[in-house]
Amino acid sequence: MKKNVLLVVNPISGDLDKSDLLDTVQEFSAINKFNLIVYETTGEKDAVAIQSLYDEYNPERIVVAGGDGTIKMVAEAMETHDIVIGILPAGSANGLSVDLNLPATLEENLEVAFLHHYIEMDMIGINGKKSIHLSDIGINADLVKNYEASDLRGFWGYAMQAYTTLKDAEEPFLASITANNQTVKHTARMIVIANSQKYGTGVTINPNGSMNDGKFELIILKSLDLLLLGKIITGNMPIDSDDIVIISTEKAFVKTDRPVNFQIDGEYCGAQNELEIHILHKQMKIAVP
Q1: Which of 85, 131, 170, 248 is the one with CA 20 to 30 A from 78?
Q2: Which conformational region is residue 15 in: left (phi greater than 0), alpha (psi within -120 to 50 degrees), or beta?
Q3: Region at 146 (left for phi over 0; alpha for psi -120 to 50; beta for the rest)
Q4: What would the pLDDT profile of 221-277 be if each residue is shown by its tens digit?
């Protein structure tokens, strides 16, 4: 009796053609005696479609070929089900796979996604939405917004928008943060809500983060000039700076003195002036090496 595996592919993620990837996955499934059910996302009612495929085939695993956004959508669709999710990194933002130390090649990732053991990973609830990785309010969210609206993709598109974003940046915002039974106020350029350690660019923003410790970190960047943003983008985050405050907690409330741009896992979510944040402990099972 072959075991069913559902493959969820985001055909447009990372601007990569997925046909070679699909061929390789199908070949791997055949060799390892898996019955592969392929679903390509459309951006319309994907979660509902995935739930009905789950009910129909009762797969042993769901393997996601896409970036952080696709993984999160699948995790949310499977929220009430006990299933292991495997990852084939194929998005423009693959921060989660960087954090999980997934291998570099597709062949190795197939082994992990289909056959290896898993960890139970936390997620973070923010204003009723879920984050699997890193969210932030402030200048990086401005950058995400500008990047989504621009035509140029990839590292240079990102760098161009980084320059423009900083050049046109508003004044820092004032944030009141309640966590661990105390309230502190900081003037900030950006506050990161981190379940893990690294941005998809490989930048360590949260050196003590762990994805299954039942806590998340708020990283408050008080100043952010071109030099510091350059360091963050190139992966040389100066953690011991006086300009950076890190708070580790299970829940927090952040209030800003004006609406500030906000993004979750690389997706722009509008301007917010209040964030209610809490940990969702051991919310999803992810295959790891």
Answers
A1: 248
A2: left
A3: alpha
A4: 887 666 776 666 565 666 667 778 889 999 999 999 999 999 998 888 999 999 999
Q: How far is CA 245 from the centre of its chain?
A: 22
Residue 91 confidence (pLDDT) above 90 = no
Q: Could you tell me the two tokens for 211?
A: 């994805």
**DSSP structure class, residue 132:** S
Per-residue pLDDT reduced to its tens digit, 39-56:
999 989 999 999 999 999
Question: Could you tell me whether strands 134-138 and 251-264 are parallel, antiparallel, or unpaired per DSSP bridges?
Answer: antiparallel
Angle value at C-alpha 203, between 200 and 209, nearest 5 degrees? 90
Structure tokens of 273? 């002036």
Tokens found for residue 217: 């970190």
Dihedrals phi, psi of 29, to nearest 5 degrees:
-65, -45
More confident: 256 or 140: 256
pLDDT number for residue 22: 92
In 60-179, at which residue ranges do the beta strands (DSSP E only) sit?
A: 61-66, 84-89, 118-126, 129-131, 134-138, 173-179
| Cβ neighbours for 289, distance < 8 A, ≥ 6 positions apart | 100, 101, 102, 103, 112, 116
Q: Which residue has the tokens 């139970």?
A: 120
**What's the CA gap between 106 and 190, in Å, rounded?**
35
Burial 210-228 (b: 16+ CB within 10 A, else e): bbeeebbbbbbbbebeeeb
pTM above 0.90, yes or no: no
Angle, in degrees to the nearest 10, between helices 68-77 and 46-57: 60
Mean pLDDT to the nearest integer, 68-77: 89
